Amino acid sequence: MSEITLIGLNHKTAAVELREALAFTAEESANALKSLIGNSNNKIKEAMIFSTCNRMEILFISSDKSCKASQSICSTGSSNSTGSSDSSESTDNTGSSDNTQVVINFLSEYKKLPVSRFQDSLYIYNGNDAVRHIFRVASSLDSMIIGEPQILGQVKAAYRLAALNKYSGVVINRLMHKAFSIAKKVRRETGIGDNAVSISYAAIELANKIFNDLNERCVMLLGAGEMAELAVEHLISHGVKKIFVANRTFENGVLLAKKFNGIKAVYGSNRRCAIQDIEHNSNIVQDSEDNLRNNQDDFSKNRENDIVNAEAVRFEERERLLQEVDIIISSTGATEYVLTAAQVKKSMTLRKNRPLFLIDIAVPRDIDPKINKIDNAYLYDIDDLQNIVDDNMEERKKEAFKGERLVDEAVIKFQKWLENLDVVPTIVAIKEKIEKIIESETEKTLNSLNLREEDQDAIKRMAQAITNKIMHDPIQFLKNSGNHRDDVFYLNAAREIFNINNMNGD
Amino acid sequence: MTLDNIERILSITATITYIASMAAYIFYLFKQKDELQNYGFFLICVGAALHFLGVCLATIMMGTLPAYNLKQTLSIAALALSGTFIFLNQKFNLKILGLFASPLLVIIMSASIILPNTLPSQPLFLNDLGLRSISHFWLISHIVMIFTGEAALALACGSGILYLIQEKAIKEKKRGFFYKRLPSLALLDNTSYTSIVTGFTMLTVGLITGLIYAKNVWGTFLSWDPKEIWSAVTWLIYAALLHGRLASGWRGRKSAIMTIIGFAVLLFTLFGVNLFIGGHHQSFTK
Questions:
Q1: Number of domains into which chain A is organized
Q2: How confident is the model at residue B115 (pLDDT cuts 50, 70, 90)?
Q3: Chain-chain contact of B186 with A210 (C-beta, under 8 angstroms)
Q4: Dist. CA B87–CA B80, nearest whole Å
Q5: In A, residues 363-392, which contact B (CB 8 Å cutoff)?
Q6: What residue in B sits closest to A194 (Cα-Cα)?
Q7: Residue of chain A whose alpha carbon sits nearest to that of B180
Q8: What's B269's DSSP letter?
Q9: Is A352 in Cβ contact with B248 (below 8 Å)?
């Protein structure tokens, strides 16, 4: 029986310095997997490394040979360790535990970091707990921001790397495919990804509740700043018509406008790069989710030839532009209001009361709070947006409970598959299937023939003999598990050939 | 089975379908599953078709549009409402408006079914007055136009109410139950505006055909009947609303409130005048 083990650390157990020290790039993890699996001293058959800025995890499958003598311990021991960080100190002497130590030592050597430095931050999951953990990670239930959609893509990339180099085998392949489908199911059937959990995206959601179609809207950015720029970038990906950049230093405004125009070009030609680009600029963990979401949901709306028109304007022009723009994002360092109620009131008449949405991200505030009292003007400051984000966070946590339940169901199914992926259950299942077929076919024939009882028995015996003869060689083949053969592979193939996986409630 | 019974069964079945549609819309409000809204809309369409058949049957039996007493009038009003709703929903895909339209349909139709089929006090006033068919045409146009217009204005009122709910949530930054479920302010405002334009146009045509009919029957366009005066007041309110919107950008909250006030006055004109004041439209509220 294959033993699934996962060791790792994440944002909950380790500080960022440690996570950085143990992070793997794609090349590193390819190399590491190569030496981990290539090493014949350990019994690791399959492995993959999953490393992001919030977590580093190594998933590996230990072959059963090392623990044949103590198989019962192997298969039952898994549910006992609940993966608390100190379970690494447990001293049960089974094969997978050996391998766990091997992997920990390997990690220490590879990253040139003494084991003592990171041992306390490690969590170690075996069997079902490892499966559950992988499912939870892929479904974004274990993320810092619950429900952020990027994790699934990252898991997929890590798996692709392992699969391309054949470091993953039957168990990891199935485990990961189940993880992907459960992740999609959780996203589809619960609301964990529904509401914005970043300031800038909350602003966009509000804009969508005020305006019907952002394609026709114009935006003015006052000042500059990470969060404000990010909000503008979201608006760009939603296809706003025009962006005015008003900066006290005109040159900075020009640069910023240029950057916005560039983003659109990148968005148009290569979405993937654009995501990374924006992420790189933002460094706000929270917001990474949004780029992906924008890309998935809204990109199709944007036409390729639709070039964003970002234009730098003088800061003094802002009052005149109040008539033209629909969304204002303000983030200046000013100590007094850069937009007053009187200015906005005046402009509302000129703009025939078309709605105006003002987002004040600056501290101290840039926009006179009295503006929110004006009809058809809606002002949100950073606290308002933060409140929305907090509410949504709570909402996601509630939804996560539903997700946990779906994950639990999937774990049980996977466990069933894994348990059956052994010689005896496979042979039994194949035998049952063939016997069932022969039995029903014999029955059919006999019913139509109207034979004597002895003749009927003779035919039944013949059918039984056929079953046994047909089954003899395959059974011998499956039973002969020596010769350093990867049994799991053949067992799985046998189950696939006879299509018996799907009979186990899979 | 007499035609009368068939007509009655049709209108009851239509009402049940409307009730089912309302249930679908209410589930949609809570569950936010699009197929629920599709069921709701489909059911309204089915209900409207049955309802239409019933009204056609009644028309054939009576030889004219069945709008002689309150029972029949309400039924016609409901049919106009479902027709207008189907049209506006197809045009704007404003799912949430069904939440307003379907209960309204259920209320009107239930009232219509419960009410007794009293004989009109001026039985068959067309024939009695010996009207020529041209007058008949004006009368039917008047009834159809007025009711369609009123249905559109009812939907305008509905989107106005939804607008106020959503606007309050955004303005006061208290996002409640409805915030997630309602569409954008702009969409609600546009729907309200389109409904008003449609309704106002119909109402205007309806009033004109009514005047022509009055001229044919009574020999004078206006007899300063309370119903006529209140109709003029209603018309002026909506005219003012549209003028304000076009000329000085009256939109959003003010417009929504005006829409609701306008509809309240309209309801008074439709029913209140007959109940409290009287006039020459008396027969059909009995």
A1: 3
A2: confident
A3: yes
A4: 11
A5: 372, 375-376, 378, 380, 384, 387-388, 391
A6: B180
A7: A209
A8: I
A9: yes
Confidence band, pLDDT 50/70/90 cuts, at residue A59: very high
Portion 330-349 of A in contact with B at CB < 8 A: 349
* Residue that terminates a domain, selected from A189, A221, A237: A189
Chain A nearest CA to B190, separation (Å) = 9
Secondary element (H or E) of residue B240: helix B226-248
Which residues touch B94 (CB under 8 Å, ≥6 apart)? B88, B159, B183, B187, B188, B191
Determine which of A257-261, A320-324, B70-74, B235-239 has the lowest per-residue pLDDT on average.
B70-74
Percent of chain B, pLDDT > 90? 24
Q: Which chain A residues are Cβ-neighbours of B250 within 8 angstroms? A: 353
A212, burial (CB in 10 Å: exposed 0-12, middle 13-18, buried 19+): middle
Is A74 tagged catalytic? Answer: no
A218-230 burial: b if 16+ Cβ within 10 Å, else e: bbbbbbbbebbbb
Cis before A364 (ω within 30): yes
Q: What is the mean pLDDT of chain A?
A: 80
A181 and A251 both lie in a single domain = no
User: Taking 60 as the threshold, does the pLDDT of residue A199 lie above it?
Assistant: yes
A170: which 2 tokens? 């039957």
Quick one: average pLDDT of A118-147?
92
Whether A109 and A182 map to the same domain: the answer is yes
Q: Yes or no: is domain B1-118 CATH 1.20.120?
A: yes
* Coil vs helix vs strand at A143: coil
* Average pLDDT, integer, range B64-74: 76
Tell whether A191 lies on the interface with B, counting CB pairs under 8 A: no
Comparing CB atoms, the residue among A206, A355, A387 nearest residue B186 is A355
Single out the residue of A351, A389, A356 nearest to residue A371, CA to CA.
A356
Q: Please state, in angstroms and rounded to a whole number, the distance separating the CA atoms of residues B10 and A239.
A: 50
Specify the range with the lowest mean pLDDT, choosing from A27-31, A222-226, B100-104, B223-227.
Answer: B223-227
Asked if the C-beta of B253 comes within 8 angstroms of chain A's C-beta atoms, the answer is yes
pLDDT digits (tens, 9 = 90+) for B224-259: 778 888 888 999 999 999 998 888 778 888 889 999
Residues of A in contact with B253 (CB under 8 A): 375-376
A351 CB neighbours in chain B (<8 A) are 249
Ranges of each domain in chain B: 1-118, 126-286
Q: Which residue has the higher pLDDT, A504 or A105?
A: A105
Same domain, A257 and A177: no
Residues of A in contact with B173 (CB under 8 A): 380, 384, 387-388
